Amino acid sequence: MRRALGLRVLRFTVPGLFQRTAEVRAPRRWVLGLGVRMFAVLLAVMGPVRAAAVEEAPRRWALVVGENQGLAGEERLHFAEADAQRMREVLQEVGTVPPERTVTLLGTDAATLRDALKGFRARLAVEASSRDWLLLYVSSHAGDGSLHLRGTELPMRELVDFLKGAPVGVGLLILDSCRSGVATRLKGLKPVAAPITMEASDLEGRVVISASGADEYAQESDALQGSFFTHHLAAGLRGAADASRDGRVTLEEAYRYAYARTLESTLVSPGGVQRPTFRMDLRGRGELVLSEPQQARGRLTLDVKTPGRWLVVASESGALVAELEKGEGPTTLAVAPGAYRLLLRADEGYLERSVLVPLNGTVSVGGTPLEEAARLRLARKGGAGSSLLLAVGPSLTSGIVAGLSSISGLDVRLVREGRLFSGVDTSSLGLAVRRGTGSGVSFQQTELELRLGAGPHWKHGAWTFSGALEAGALAIFQARIPEEEARFGLEPLALVTGGVRLDVRSRLSMLLSASAGGVMAKRDSGTALVPRASASLMVGYALYHGDHGG
C-alpha cells in the first residue's frame, strides 16, 4: 500500500536521545538535500569573503631611495642617503608602514632603481588593493627633469608613471632633489597654491611634492645633518605639524609645516630661497593621514605654552632628531625610547634639559625657567612669526641747502620683521619723494631718497619698538633757478632711526619714526657732511604674517 502510494519508510537515529521511525515523502527529502548542499556552498563562499574583508583593510607601502653621488663633475652630497634612512625610520615608527612593506635603496644607479620599481610593481599587482596607499621618497642629485644617480640618469617621468600605474588608491611621491619642481609640472597633475587647503572628501588619486621649485636648489645643512626639507618634513610627521592636536598628521598639515619651515630656513641662505612645490589629482571625501604620533613607542611633550625654537638631540649619538619652531601650546613628538637633550633658544644661547623617554610612555618637559625663556625670546623678536608690512605717510625733513630749511613729502616703506642673524630681526626698504620751494632765492627742489636699514625690535603687547642703521642715496633736482640751468646731484647718506608702532587692528597699524644722520653733499668749495633729520607718521598694512618665524 505505501509502496503503491510512492511512500518509503526511512529510519534514522538521534544518538543519545531515542529512536523512532519516521515517514518522509521522497520529494521532501530531495528538497532537504538540496538545501544542505546550498548551505555548504554558501559556507565555502562566505569563508574566503570574510577573510578577504579582514585582509581588505588599508595597507601602506613605501619605496625609499637615497644616493649621494650624482653625475661626473657634480659635488657629492653629504646627507642624501642619511635623509632616506631618516625618512624610513619616521615612516616605520609613526607612519604605520611595516618593514616588510618597505623597500629601501641606499646607494643606487638608474638601472638598479628601474629593477626595484619593476619588482615592486609586480608585488603590488599581487598583494595591493585599491584601498592601500603608496609612498615613494627619493633624495639625490637632479637636473633637466632627471634624477642623477651614480653617473646615470633616470627621468622623473618614470617615477610619476610608476606612481600613476600602481594598483593603490592613493600614491604620494616626495622628491628631495635640486630642480625637482619639474616633476610637478607633468601632465595630469593640478597645481595647488601654497598654503594648500584640501576639501574633506573621499581621497583618491596621486600627489607629487618636491623639495624645490623647477629652478631652485634643494639645500643641505651641516647643522641639521640633512636637507632642510626632509628634516622639517620628518619633524612635522613626528608631531610638530600636528596643528589640530589630535595625535595624527595629515598630508595638508605636513606640507604646510615643511613648506613654511623650509622657506624660512633658506630665506638668507647662499643657495637662495627654496620653495617646496605641490601638485595633486585628488577627488572625493576624507583626509590622508601620513603619520600617527600618538601610536609611537615613545613620546616627548614640550609642555611650554609660549612659542619657541627647540632642538631635540639624542644624548648617546649626538644626532639632531628635530629642530622645530613650536607654536602656541604644548607639542608632542614621537621619538624612539632613550635619552635626549632638549635645548630651548633663549635670549643668549640655549637653556638645556635632559630627559629619558620611556618605552611605551610619554615624558613631559616644562617649568617656569623654560616658560620665561620662551617668553623673553618671543618679546625680543617681536612674535612667533615673520611679517611683512607696507607703510605710507607724510614726512618732514631738514634741508641741506641754504634757503630751504625744511622739505616735506611722502614716505613709503616696506618693513620685514623676522630674524636675519643674531641681534638683527628687522629690515626695511624706504623710498621718499619730497618737494619744496626756496626762500630768498626762488627755486624749486625735488628730492628722491632711497635707503636700506636693519636692526632689532622689541614687542610689548600692541606696541613694537625698533631701531635701525640705515644707508642709502639722495637724488636732488633743482629747477627754476634765476638765470641758471637746472641742477642735479646724487649724494650718499647714513642715518640712525628709531620707531614705534601701534597695532590698531589685525593688519592695520600706526607708525611714528624719527631719523638723524648726515648727507655727503657737494658744495662750491668741495664735499661736506651736512646734518640731516626727519620724522614721519605712517599707516601700515600687514601684507604677510607667517605662522613659523625664525
TrEMBL record:
Domain of life: Bacteria
Peptidase C14 caspase domain residues: 59-255
GO terms under biological process: proteolysis
GO molecular function list: cysteine-type endopeptidase activity
A UniProt-annotated Pfam family: Peptidase_C14
InterPro entries reported in the protein's UniProt record: Caspase-like_dom_sf, Pept_C14_caspase
Protein name per Swiss-Prot or TrEMBL: Caspase family protein
Organism: Corallococcus exercitus
